[in-house]
Amino acid sequence: MKRSITLWGAGTARTLRPIWVAEELGLQYDLKPIGPRTGETSTPEFAALNRRQKIPVLVDGDFSLSESLAICRYLIHRYPGESVYRPTSVEECAREDEWCSHIYGELDETSLYVMRRHGDLGHIYGSAPNVVEASKEYATRHLRAIEDMLGDRSSVLDGGFGLADVMLQTCLEWAVTYGVELPSGLDRYRHRIAARKAFQRAVTLNFGGG
Ligand SMILES: N[C@@H](CCC(=O)N[C@@H](CS)C(=O)NCC(=O)O)C(=O)O
Question: 3-class SS at 155?
Fold first, then answer.
């Protein structure tokens, strides 16, 4: 099936995810690199596309979707590719869900985005250094648990590199930029994943690379 794919959004850990998955799958897509808090998510054109007025957004033919996790999962299942693991059994799907929910819920939303809201975005949401510090500690606690559960595997799930790795790696990179010290095993995992060519292309596309 060949349709016209557009990805809206660049510049954040959340927008990196679908760009990375599209690169892993070798998809042809048009990138509209609008950024957060630039006013570009407030235009009538964008609001018509996503009433939530958040990036990233995917448009695939006449189908549109927001939420980074949902977009990545959609691409992986719509356009299966050798290099990205796609769970098939009910148990495998549930295991992937468990990891992604934990990573998204505890690292992305509850730790890193809280640090962003009350750190970099303190002028909007209130500057709260104690909240930032407590969130950092909270992240560290969950990172230790993730390190224990991951062991020396090179991908989160035994089936190979997949959605849970996209979620984890983007949070690890985000954590490092916020000065969170990663447990050594997780840092090794991060470096192994960062060696993926598709990841490197996606980082350049998402954050710019000169
Ligand atoms: N849960 C959403 C979060 C999306 C989100 O909050 N995006 C931010 C940028 S990271 C945004 O679009 N902010 C709107 C704006 O500031 O203009 C996801 O994972 O896609």
Answer: coil
- pLDDT tens-digit map of 104-162: 999 999 999 999 999 999 999 999 999 999 999 999 999 999 999 999 999 999 999 99
The pLDDT value recorded for residue 193 is 98
Per the CB < 8 A criterion, the answer to whether 146 and 103 are in contact is: yes
Whether residues 29 and 114 share a domain: the answer is no
- Cα(151) to ligand 1 centroid in Å equals 31
Q: What is the pTM of this model?
A: 0.97
User: Of 153, 185, 142, nearest to 85 (Cα)?
Assistant: 153
- CATH for 58: 3.40.30.10
Q: Which domain holds residue 78?
A: 5-84+200-207
Computed over every residue of the chain, the mean pLDDT equals 96
Structure tokens at 65: 């979707």
Does residue 184 sit in the same domain as residue 119? yes
Q: Is 170 in the pocket of ligand 1 (CB under 6 A)?
A: no
Residues 120 and 79 in one domain: no
